[in-house]
Amino acid sequence: MFEPNPPTDQPVNADPDQVLMLQYASGNARAFELLYSKHKGPLYRYFVRQIYDNQLAEDLYQEAWSRVIKAAANYQAKAKFTTWLYRIAHNLIIDHVRAKKPESSFSDTFEDEQETEFVASCLSESPEQLLQQQKKALLLKDCVKDLPQVQQEAFLLNIEMGFTAATIADIAGATVEATKSRLRYANKGLKACVDLKWQEVEYD
Q: From the CB of residue 14, how many other CB atoms can be counted at a distance below 10 Å?
């Protein structure tokens, strides 16, 4: 089953990876090798961080590349290759989670509050201090696991991959505003979770 063509919000000239993908579609195997080498590490981590099962993450990772290969003949360079690649990965994870959980688990549940931009760091008010403390880093990792799936994905794509809210929205098939809300609530929830767990550690 081929993936849908990439969205149309990015110019072709902005993405060298598109050129490689088009070259691969024309029969250049070396072009695919270059794409694979560049994206294999981040893409694999994307699966591992959300699946927490190395074997299943490996299976989904291989399936993602299989879909890239199958879609090559119909590929159109209308968006950044990375956005298209992670949209394929996103769809695989959604299919996996939906097979295990009811559809309602994908809904964002936000409490009512004044409309403000939550710009504070997702780690703490002083990110450097948090990163210097191994225990808090481990607490953060545990807290990320407890986030709702849509918030977790948005957080990981933003923090680990450096994707903007607009790019994450393209990947997840959501609006930019919804994506900003997911990031805002993920940041807020992670800070509260780490603070609470840190207090428990201090009192042990």
A: 10
